[in-house]
Amino acid sequence: MLLHVRVTDSFTPFSSAQPIPIPNRCVFLSFTMIVTDHPPPSLPSANPDMYGLLVLGGQSTRMGRDKAFLDYPVNEETTQPLYLRLLNLLHQACPAGVYISHNTSQAARLHQGWLPPRTVLVPDDPRIIASNIGGPAAGLLSAHLAKPDATFLVLAVDFPLVTLETLTDLSARYTPPVTCYLHASDAHPEPLLSVWGPEALDELRENAMGEMKKTGPCWTARRIWKRLGVETVGDDGKQMQEGKFVFKPREQQWLFNTNEPEEWEKAKSILCSRTSATQ
Question: What angle do CA 45, 167, 67 make, to 5 degrees?
Answer without folding.
Answer: 145
